[in-house]
Amino acid sequence: MKKKIVYKDEPSDVDLEHAVRVKDFLPGPNHLVLRKERVVAVRLDESTVSELKKEADEKGLGVSSLIRMWVRERLTKAHASL
Question: What is the pTM of this model?
């Protein structure tokens, strides 16, 4: 029989017998793999860039990160509808 592990920093007020299992919220393995990125230039008018900056600021992101996120979401939806 294996010896029970006793952790020194384990909270004493935790009731593990009545614990609830939560759904896995981590991204899948394909989202954790480092991908090679390529720079793509896109010309946008000033009002579009201003709107993108405002939206990115509200979300706490950079403009490029927001654009990449939106492009990825759109491509995912397009592939799902095939």
Answer: 0.56
